Amino acid sequence: MPQDEVSTLTDTRKAIYAVGCDGRYEIVPSSGWEAEAEATLQAVDELARRAVEAYDRVAAGAAAPLYFHMFDRRMDIDLLSQASGIGRWRLKRHLKAEVFAKLPPKTVARYAEALGLKVDELKRLPAVRPDRA
Fold this sequence. Notes:
Helices cover about 50% and strands about 10% of the residues. It is mainly α. The chain has a domain at about 50-120: 434 Repressor (Amino-terminal Domain) (Orthogonal Bundle). The relative contact order is 0.13.
C-alpha cells in the first residue's frame, strides 16, 4: 500500500482496498500516494484559477456572484447542482447576473446553504480579489 506521507492528508490516514495474501479484498490504512496528491493539488489549483477568472467576470457584470462563490468553494456546476438540489439547466441560467438578481429568496437560500454562506455573502463579491491565479 502507498505510504508516501503526502501533504494533502497531513496527519490523517485513509482506507484503501487491497488484495490480501488470501486473495480477498481487505481495507488497509494508507498515508497517501504521491501521484494522487499531485492530481488533487492540480485540481485545487485549477478551481482556484477559475475562481479568479469568475471574480473578474462578476466584477464586470458578466456573471452572478453565485458563479464566483461556486468556484471559490471548490465546486463546479454538477456538484453545486447536487448539493443544492437545483437542476443543472436551471443552475446554469442562475449564473447570469440578470437572472440571479430576480431569484426568489428561497432559491438563493438553497444556494447559500449548499455553499456554506450567508445569503448576503452569496449576493456579493468579497472586497478583495483572490490572488490565486
